[in-house]
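Sequence, structure tokens quoted for completeness.
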Amino acid sequence: MRKKACYFWLSPANDAMGYNNDKDYECLSVNVDIDECVVTNMDLISAAYVNFIMEKDNKAMYEYRKLVAAYDETAVKYLDYGIGLFRTPEVIIQGNIDPQNIEVVQASDIDNQYTSNRDLYNANIGSIYDQLTAMEKVAIHDDSTGLLSTYKQKDKEEYYTIEESFYYGK
């Protein structure tokens, strides 16, 4: 899905890499046809990448190709995305974006309807937290929020990423 594509945060509030806190980065806004956009789960591609790197040393926890396939298969059209569906939603646009459709903006000036996305995601998966022992851990990775663990339900192709610091001690 990421081949020959541009990918963006759904909004500045979804920046899980910490760019918003780095004065050397600039926030870009793009003007594109929303029918050409899909929203994907960045946690899955991050989990795939960690396993890809670990596979070189025979230490992968899970088959990275399955995680890439899940990343592609769970993508939803932009208009079908609901707040909290993915912890780290990113928008994929196939192809290039004309320069006249890109502008530098202040992240604080953007109407941020997705501010509560991560909190809602964490609240939604709170109900499955007690079931983690019945799930397979497929990756340990991190982002600016801290240590993450991605799990797969053993009986179906559903994946959940848990922020260890959020659930620590529950």
Summary: Strands lie at 5-9, 27-30, 37-41, 76-77, 89-94, 102-105, 135-143, 146-153, 159-163. The chain has one domain: 5-106+115-167. The longest strand covers residues 135-143. The chain is about 20% helix and 30% strand.
